[in-house]
User: What shape does this take?
Amino acid sequence: MISIKPVSDLRNYNEVLQDVREDSPVFLTKNGRGCYAVLSIKDYEKLTATKTLFSELQKGEESAVRDGWIDAKDVRSMVGF
Assistant: This one.
């Protein structure tokens, strides 16, 4: 469930942290607009891993466009399948 609270609620941060669950961050507003997100470390690690994966995939695609694609059969022989 999405939890949206004003940033002033951080005065009692324990209450804010109790609402943070895996896959359910707490969004904090400032002057009525979204400003911050408090999320579990597990969710943070997932986001970081996803960002890294997409970055590496982009590098691979750029390399393929620049240097040419490798046939799936050649890839299998390169990795020993």
